[in-house]
Amino acid sequence: MSVLTIVAAVNQALKTEMALDPAVIVFGEDVGQEGGVFRATVGLQETYGVERCFDTPLTEGGIVGAAVGMAVAGLKPVVEIQFAGFSYPAFDQLVNHAARLRNRTRGAMEVPLVVRMPYGGGIGAPEHHSESPEALFAHIPGLKVVIPSTPHDTKGLLIAAVRDPDPVIFMEPKRIYRSVKQEVPEDAYTVEIGRAKVVKAGRDLTLVSYGAQMKEAGEAVVRLGERGVSVELIDLRTIYPFDLETVVESVRRTGRILVVHEGPQSFGAAAEIVTSVLEEAFVYLEAPPTRLSGADTVFPLPKAEHHYLITTEQIVDAAAEVAAYRP
Questions:
Q1: What single-letter DSSP state applies at residue 131?
Q2: SS percent in the chain: helix, strand, coil, step 5
Q3: Which pLDDT score, from 0 to 100, does residue 234 have?
Q4: Which of 26, 61, 70, 313 lies deepest, with the highest CB count within 10 Å?
Q5: To the nearest whole percent, how much of the chain has pLDDT over 90?
Q6: What's the pLDDT score for residue 1?
């Protein structure tokens, strides 16, 4: 076992898969010589050479477009987009090609491609550096969207993503890149894509979240417990396909649900989860399904980002209100 941060777990996952499979290659802006803007790829070029870990020009569309061609040709590219807000120029390649090739060729072609991108706010970054666009990618048939919140899950999910025959958008919570440490096995292992994790069992309320927001969600669960509110905390881990079975099973026991995420509210992941719960567990509900999310606005510049980010206190207040609701 090694004690790793999330960013170190990313690095170890890539090193592990590159050692096991020569088809795995890593490229993107500054990922080679510099080891990436967050140093997630440090040592890869030194260990595996410039043919398997290399720098690219500043062209997100070109990076992903090249990766699609490489994936179809039999390689397993893992590309880095420096910040999630820089991914939009690559949207054409992801939506019109990566996500469609299996269908377009009636299964004759696979696209084993991973697009890594740090997402979310909280680090005092300028414009385009703090977006949470997971809902955009989750809306596209053919793309899988994964967001870990712990070092253990980061390594296991990234290895699973590299081995997946379909394109995976792997979004990394940069706000907690180095603030969370955990024991992680040194050998290769996978965490199933599409399977949520019940972090803590509870009886009064189901709290669903993912990524960086799990930090505040976990703190809120402790504070609510001190008030006598027993909360079942679920880490979604995969945004699409999301684990409806685990969420519904929990709601059928607790009768109440609160979904929390950093991204904007309208048409976000919480809307899909809440609607699915209404369809599958309506008769079990004892309170209106509730969502707590970022505002429907462009992420603010650093001096104002504290007005946007969801705090532990906000989660506690929202959860207490749901738990106390009586028709």
A1: -
A2: 40, 20, 40
A3: 98
A4: 26
A5: 99
A6: 87
3-state secondary structure of 132: coil
Q: Is 129 considered catalytic here?
A: yes
Q: Residue 209: beta bridge partners?
A: 235
Among left, alpha and beta (phi > 0; psi -120 to 50; other), residue 127 is beta
Q: Can you tell me the distance from the alpha carbon of 194 to that of 210, in angstroms, rounded to the nearest whole number? A: 13
Q: Where are the beta strands (DSSP E) in the chain?
A: 2-5, 24-28, 53-55, 76-80, 114-119, 144-146, 168-173, 181-184, 197-200, 205-209, 231-235, 238-240, 257-264, 290-294
Phi, psi for 214 (deg, rounded to 5): -65, -25
Q: What is the pLDDT of residues 146-157, one digit of tens each?
A: 999 999 999 999
Q: How many CB atoms lie within 10 A of CB 205?
A: 27
Please state, in angstroms and rounded to a whole number, the distance separating the CA atoms of residues 83 and 128: 8
**Residue 318, pLDDT above cutoff 90:** yes
The single residue of 97, 128, 129, 139 carrying the catalytic annotation is 129
Q: Can you tell me the distance from the alpha carbon of 35 to that of 38, in angstroms, rounded to the nearest whole number?
A: 8
User: What domains can be seen in the chain, in order of their start residue?
Assistant: 2-184 (3.40.50.970), 197-324 (3.40.50.920)
Whole-model pTM: value is 0.97
What is the DSSP pairing of strand 181-184 with strand 2-5? antiparallel
Residue type, 199: V
